[in-house]
């Protein structure tokens, strides 16, 4: 995987580069940006949704199941930990809660759909977001 390089531009816009690809991120107008691209949380949800879709599509392909399309709808919100029924580790402060809905199109049996729902929770990005994450500094000469 290529390094991801983020460089600030005008106002709150950033250029995100990885390999031969590049795109602009920004904040919405109401947050002080110009809405020239996705905001960071939309990118995070996009990464999770893409991973869910790819993981289930690859699984169905391996099984030769007639999965035609995966649609993932995601929503993120910051809530009080005490209001989070699913939270086990945190009881104070705030937590980020991601809600998701995954649908599958194709001539699939009920059993196949149920298995794809199980598989959708096993994508690598889902596993990353639900495990401990450690962020460390690169050496100063690492940016070029």
Describe what you observe in this structure.
- The protein is of the alpha+beta class and 144 residues long.
- It folds into two domains: 1-38; 39-139, K homology (KH) domain (GMP Synthetase, Chain A, domain 3), CATH 3.30.300.20.
- The chain has three helices and five strands.
- A hairpin with a 2-residue loop joins strand 2 (14-18) and strand 3 (21-25).
CATH-defined topology of the largest domain: GMP Synthetase, Chain A, domain 3
Gyration radius, rounded: 18 Å
User: What's the story with the biggest beta sheet?
Assistant: 3 strands, antiparallel
Mean pLDDT: 90
Please state the structural category. Answer: alpha+beta
How many β-strand stretches? Answer: 5
Keywords:
two-stranded antiparallel ribbon; globular; 5 strands; GMP Synthetase, Chain A, domain 3; 2 domains; 3 helices; three-stranded antiparallel beta sheet; 144 residues; alpha+beta
